[in-house]
Amino acid sequence: MSGQIDVLLYGLGAIGSFYAFVLSRSENVRLTVVARSNYDAVSAKGITINSENHGQHTFHPYRVVKSPAEASPVDYVVCAHKAIDQEEVAAQLKPVVEEGRTTFVIIQNGVGNEVAFRNRFPGCSILTCVTWVGAIQISPGIVNHTKSEDMQIGLYPNTQIDDATENQHLKTFADLLKHGKTRFKVLDDMQVQRWEKVVWNAAWNSITALTMVDTQTWLHSSKDAEPYTRRLMQEVINIARGCGVNLADDLIQKLMDKINAMPGIGSSMQTDCKNGRPMEIDVILGFPVRKSKELGIPAPYLESLYLLLCAVDGRIRAAL
Ligand SMILES: *[C@@H]1O[C@H](CO)[C@@H](O)[C@H](O)[C@H]1NC(C)=O
User: Fold this and answer.
1) Pairing state of beta strands 125-131 and 151-155?
2) Domain at 24, CATH number
3) Tell me, what's the pLDDT at 249?
């Protein structure tokens, strides 16, 4: 690889810091990070990763800024922020975007995450990703990463841009991931991956956040809890199919086997709720619920969870 590649990373939590580390392994990457609560720590001491796969590393990004307004246009904008207020974030990123040059890389849970960026910057390529990295920020600028590490990445196709250019945008970024020695796979159709993970998240995130119990405690809380969960998952699968995303029939059983092979777990939404932080309800439930209405696909279980979570989220936001 040759030629300098300017990258701005927005959302310097555990996942963002992990991918900042991966990108920092390429000498031709000039990395700017947008840091908020960890700005002072990261400016002074850089970012430290303790990884069971990669060992311990400390690195200093080229620049640490508090807002995209302090930076100039880049080749890649990596969005690893919590998926709330997507429209607002897209608006804030305007100073670092140059249509025809900038490509977005979205590393978030949920579906429909790309829409705000496509609408605001119709001339940009978007790479959409699902990540399976297990990491936590144990103190500002210090991230512990377990062995869990994988990513699926692919285009969110832009019909305004020719295929060769889009594929080059994808290849250049995939080469950075490869050089950064992280596990990943390039896929042709990312929407299957995104929706599959949403089937999981719509069930477990919502239920654990609303009940404040773990997954196993929920499943054993009444004889109808498991059938309820399966029907909820079926609703999301039906909506995905309505959107042209063909999820396999046996997904529900696979996800139930997976959850039953684990000890009871909470979720990021449960943690956010406990800590009085806004939750990722729009990309995990809101978008599917809107699609169900547009397409006339009934989803009463999903919609009820969404409405209850909207009220809880509203209470949390009012107290901020
Ligand atoms: C983070 O990782 C370091 C190095 O492996 C370890 O000493 C420390 O206990 C870990 N901290 C937490 C909170 O897991």
Assistant:
1) antiparallel
2) 3.40.50.720
3) 82
| DSSP line for 236-276 | HHHHHHHTT----TTHHHHHHHHHHTS-----HHHHHHHTT
Ligand 1 centre to CA of 261 (Å) is 26
Picking from 169, 186, 203, the residue at the C-terminal end of a domain is 186
138 lines ligand 1 (CB under 6 A): yes
Cα three-residue angle 35-36-38, rounded to 5 degrees: 80
Confidence of residue 2 (pLDDT cuts 50, 70, 90): low
* 164 lies in the same domain as 201: no
Ligand 1 contact via 144 beta carbon (within 6 Å): yes
Asked if residue 201 and residue 135 are part of one domain, the reply reads no
Q: 69 CB less than 6 Å from ligand 1? A: no
For the domain that residue 259 is a member of, what is the CATH number? 1.10.1040.10
